[in-house]
């Protein structure tokens, strides 16, 4: 059965990034350095979850040629239940999550409006503080079969990230407003000045 690359590709709805290492590659558990992020998908986003399941199934079909002609009984899949696997992590409550990686730096951008052709235009994000663990994005993923050291399954490849909304930092990092909103500072604030943090 021939499967084209589009069958294993997914553009998510609005998801939240966690453990985002998308500007610089990182080594996880002493392994090869890769770009990576965990993606938190709300359980209410049935459409994204449906697309991921279809892409995982397509990748399993592709994997048959690696796996001796059939899908292994213990085939690993990338989507996991945050309520079951991270019961103590509030950010994962009510979400499924997966880890996506790439050997190459993903495209990182934000939408800036529509062009004359009606298509969305994007601006590349180079400021490493603008996309972080806790912000919201739409992500382009590609699912592919693997066979490594006896482990067989489907993994998620990270293609591109489009930031769509700020969110609270994950991982204990707080914002300036969180830290200092209730502190007194000896400064004169002109009522006409814009609050640069708002």
What is the string of SSEs from the N terminus onward?
EEEHEHEEEEEH
- Supply the number of helical segments: 3
Largest sheet, strands/sense/barrel: 5 strands, mixed, barrel
By DSSP, the count of extended strands is 9
Which CATH-level-2 architecture? Beta Barrel
Mean pLDDT, to the nearest integer, reads 89
Low-confidence stretches: none
Q: If strands are numbered along the chain, what order do they take across the biggest sheet?
A: 2-3-5-9-8
CATH superfamily: Nucleic acid-binding proteins
CATH topology: OB fold (Dihydrolipoamide Acetyltransferase, E2P)
Shape: globular
Range of strand content: 35-45%
Radius of gyration: 20 Å
Helix content: 10-25%
Summed up, the domain count is: 1
In the CATH hierarchy, what is the class?
Mainly Beta
Pfam families: Enc34_ssDNA-bd (PF10991)
Protein name: DUF2815 family protein
Question: How would you portray this structure in words?
Answer:
With 198 residues, the chain is mainly β. It has one domain: Nucleic acid-binding proteins (OB fold (Dihydrolipoamide Acetyltransferase, E2P), Beta Barrel), CATH 2.40.50. The chain has helices at residues 46-63, 82-85, 176-180; strands spanning 9-11, 15-27, 33-42, 80-81, 95-102, 107-114, 120-124, 136-148, 151-165. It has a five-stranded mixed β-barrel with strand order 2-3-5-9-8.
């Amino acid at each position: 059965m021939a499967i084209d690359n589009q069958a294993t590709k997914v553009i998510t709805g609005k998801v939240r990034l966690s453990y985002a290492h998308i500007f610089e590659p990182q080594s996880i558990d002493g392994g090869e350095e890769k770009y990576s992020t965990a993606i938190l998908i709300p359980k209410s986003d049935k459409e994204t979850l449906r697309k991921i399941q279809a892409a995982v199934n397509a990748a399993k079909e592709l994997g048959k040629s690696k796996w001796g002609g059939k899908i292994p009984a213990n085939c690993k899949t990338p989507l996991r239940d945050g309520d079951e696997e991270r019961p103590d992590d509030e950010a994962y409550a009510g979400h499924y999550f997966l880890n996506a990686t790439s050997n190459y730096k993903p495209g990182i951008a934000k939408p800036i409006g529509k062009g004359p052709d009606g298509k969305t235009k994007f601006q590349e994000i180079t400021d490493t503080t603008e996309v972080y663990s806790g912000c919201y994005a739409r992500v382009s993923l590609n699912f592919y079969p693997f066979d490594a050291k006896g482990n067989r399954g489907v993994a998620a490849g990270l293609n591109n990230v489009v930031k769509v909304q700020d969110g609270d930092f994950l991982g204990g990092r707080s914002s300036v407003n969180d830290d200092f909103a209730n502190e007194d500072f000896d400064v004169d604030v002109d009522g006409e000045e814009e609050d640069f943090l708002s």
